[in-house]
Amino acid sequence: MLTQKVKWFALGIVLLFSGSGYKNASYLLNVGIEKQNPYLIWQAFVLGESDASAALLNLKLSDTSKVLWYDVLALNGNIDAAKYLADNTIHKGTQTHYYRLAAEQGDANAQFEYALLQDADLSEMQRFLTLSAEQGYPPAVIAYAKFLHAKLDANEADILYWLDKASKLDAESAIKLAKRFWLNHNKKDAIKYFEHAKSMGNSRASAYINVLQNYNEQTLNALFDNAETGTDVNCLQTIQPIARSLESMVQAVSMYNDFKKDERLASLDMCLLVPRWLPENEMKCHFDTSTGRNTCDLIELASYKKNLPFSHMVFFVERGKAYVQNGIMYVDLADEYSVFVHELAHFVGFVDEYKLTEATANNYCMPDSVPNLLFYEPSAPEARKKLAWWNELFDKTQLRINMPDDIEGKKSVATILAGENALGQSKAQKAAPIDNTGAGEGVAVDSINVEGPSLIEPEPQPSLSISSSRACDSLDIKSFKPTSEITFLEHHDTENIPALYIHMWQAMLEEKTDEKPLIKALFNAANQSKNADLIDHWADVYYSL
Question: Are the CB atoms for 445 and 464 separated by under 8 Å?
Answer without folding.
Answer: yes
